[in-house]
Amino acid sequence: MLAYLSSSTGPNPDIWVQQIGGGKAIQITHEKQGASSPVFSPDGTQIAYQLYGGIYEVPALGGDSRLIASDGLSPQYTPDGSTIVLVRVVEGALRLFTIPRLGGTPVAIHPEMGLGRFDLYVISTTGEASRRVCQACGGPGGFSSNGTRVLTENFFGGGLDKISLVEVATGKVTDVLSDPQHQLWNPFFSGMTNGCRF
Predict the structure, then answer these.
(1) Is pTM beyond 0.85 here?
(2) How far apart (Å, rounded) are the C-alpha atoms in residues 84 and 91?
(3) What is the dotted CATH code of the domain comprising 1-115?
């Protein structure tokens, strides 16, 4: 299944899904202010997304959205799907937090560290030292289900936008998609196939 953002029904984008083999597209969200940063759960049954500075979750085939965190950006599921990693602004700096998928209190991960827009780090939730995977490789998109690869996005302000694939173990960067005319954003793996969504 492919998921994407489209503003075809209004001025702000909503989340849509469609079978890769064809068929009719299904509008998943109907948000007046627009949804952003969608990501599939590892089992492909849910989509977490950002709205009004909060994090929500909706069934991948449509249904009622559910608030997970009232303050957060850029949600990502952990590989087992039980937890969501999100970004919050704390004292003017971007910080990583985790929150149980079913809701709860966000917990800071390495609260002393800020996030760099173009350097990609792997930060352990078990207290191990963080490690820079690559430098100037783009903003993070989504991890593969086995955690070995991550998609990144690069915006060049009217130039060539691109989506790249980064090997977490080696830092090797491979450009997978570029477009000189359209903005590309929010890449992530679908969780059900080897494809990606953007």
Answers:
(1) no
(2) 22
(3) 2.120.10.30
